[in-house]
Specification:
about 400 residues; mainly alpha; 20 helices; about 70% helix; about 0% strand; elongated; TATA-binding protein interacting (TIP20) domain-containing protein; ARM-type_fold; ARM-like; repeat; CAND1/CAND2
Length: about 400
Amino acid sequence: MSLVIATFGDGLQRELPSCLPILVDRMGNEITRLTAVKAFAVIANSPLRIDLSCVLDHVVSELTAFLRKANRALRQATLGTLNSLVVTYGSQIGSSSYETILAELSTLISDGDLHMAALALELCCTIMVDRRSVKNVGLAVKQKVLPEALTLIRSALLQGQALQALQKFFAALVQSANISFETLLNSLISTAKPSQSGGLSKQALFSIAQCVAVLCLAAGDQKCASTIEMLKGILNDDSSTNSAKQHMALLCLGEIGRRKDLSSHIQIENIVIESFQSPFEEIKSAASYALGNIAVGNLSKYLPFILDQIDNQQKKQYLLLHSLKEVIARQSVDHTGESELQDSNIVKILALLFNHCESEEEGVRNVVAECLGKIALIEPNKLIPALKV
């Protein structure tokens, strides 16, 4: 029935008031409930924009109640259908309904079911984009959803689709203008502070840094630039008293640099490389990560710098090679089968790696091997013949 309505609904205007209540009625039957939910998704996705005004409020109310059900498949289908309904009929759904939906969504945002959390966050984003001017919606997101999102980001299990959805959530939230950029940034950075039960996992710190980067880019160039200057200021502080803060600053700079060219920020590469002198291993590792990712944002400027430093800074060689490994690992292969690294850069990198493959330090040899392995994934035609020599 839903396929018929979705396909021929513009010619069935008289029949819709009698057909649609039948589908609504099937939502009340436990056996047909799931199929009825999917049926409304089919109708909502129809390019004909079928008139659902006679049943829309009832459907939204029923779907919202389904989010509390134990049936996982039903909750999953409900989230998808609500998303489609908001996209197509968002202006016809009342603000009180949105508040109720957001309150229910907040209960689904946890690391207990990351796929469900991702779907819930995606629906939140859809609501914020569609109803960003509605004050009640912004307030509900701020009070109900944001605290759960900030709890989820601290999870060591967060990854994949859920992490991507969380990044989109923070970007949509700052663009909705219901909460200031500064407030969101401070909230994110505050979550990185060690709690009484101990510090955060490495994965959680990377998740926070990625969300900070996406937040900065969504807020615009001015906010992004001021944040980078703030992070540089943290790095210029005494690292022995601000190790956790400096660690987070380096990760954030790396994530921002991977997404945006930071060459306008003078000497940022030298500020980062200064952290190689830190007495803390996690700071040195984060600095290596940051330098490599900053180079990804502008290969023509920063890659020659890294290669030159590897040749001339023997004490920092191990960390610099890790930066180079990060550059290589981040190179995507486009549809023509070519990586973003130019042929001349590949030749220089291979020459440098082969020059250090017999280093006395086992750590250096291991990183060289890892770099060669990653190059083999993006440029096998250049590496494999060289290995045969």
